[in-house]
Amino acid sequence: MPAESGTAHPADPGPGTGADPGTVRPGGRTARVRAAVLRAAGDVLAEQGFAHLDLADVARRAEVGRTTVYRRWGSVTALVADLLVEMAETSLPRTDTGSLSGDLAANAALVQRTLADPRQGALFRAVVAAAACDERTAAALRRFYEVRVAEWAPCVERAAARGEVPPGTDAGTVVRAVSAPLYYTLLTTGTAPDAPAAARAARAACAAAAAGVYVTGP
Is 204 inside a domain boundary? Predict the structure, then answer.
């Protein structure tokens, strides 16, 4: 992992640019610095939670100069927001199986594997906990899920075109219905959902969608 001295780098957005973290795509060395810092921030969140996230500690773990970290992100909440941007951008794309049941099962399996992963599951718990008491983190978390729901919504729209669900079915609501019980299990029991739980969630959402439960409008 490359170290940085903390001196200014031409590709880094400097103070006063007005750009939120994650809205400017860095390249080259700056991209490597961002990746190292976000990886270190994720490690701290997974290991110790939001309360122990400290920019100086993240800089040390990432082998990056503290000046660079403070200049680029400026606050813990800005760093978490950028981490969520990166997570949304690098999440796996949706699976197209040709059927709604298959697509939703693939979505549920992806969520389940993520939450069962020792690092990712702990990371999500920490971010959700932080979002409960910090509006900027909450807004970043909402944007993260907006990206993921938008990625998977077309599978429901195609299902409507095939006649598997009624016209007017709210695609985003169906996608959320798949993952909602899985997150609920993680947050209320502290235990990641297993593969059978993911399969049940997908079947339930698919059956409800086919029955017209998620139809909106007149």
Answer: yes
Q: What separation in angstroms does the CA of 10 have from each of 7, 20, 27, 28?
A: 10, 17, 11, 11
Q: Do 76 and 100 fall within a single domain?
A: no
Query: pTM, whole model, 2 decimals?
Result: 0.76
Taking only the tens place, the pLDDT of each residue in 115-172 is 998 888 888 888 888 888 888 889 989 988 999 999 999 999 999 999 999 999 999 9
**Residues 67 and 150 occupy one common structural domain:** no
One domain, residues 114 and 143: yes
Supply the range of the domain harboring residue 6. 1-90
Same-domain check for residues 82 and 98: no
Q: At 195, which CATH number?
A: 1.10.357.10
Question: b or e along 50-66 (b: 16 or more beta carbons within 10 Å of the residue's beta carbon)?
Answer: beebebebbbebbebbe
Q: Are 2 and 33 in contact (CB under 8 A)?
A: yes
| One-letter-per-residue 3-state SS of 146-212 | HHHHHHHHHHHHHHHHHCCCCCCECHHHHHHHHHHHHHHHHHHHCCCCCHHHHHHHHHHHHHHHHCC
3-state secondary structure of 54: coil
- Claim to verify: residue 145 and residue 123 sit in the same structural domain: yes
Instruction: Produce one character per residue of 70-99: b if its CB has 16 or more CB atoms within 10 Å, e if not.
Output: ebbbeebbbbbbbbbbbbbeeeeebeeeee
Q: What is the identity of the amino acid at 184?
A: Y
58 or 5, which is more confident? 58
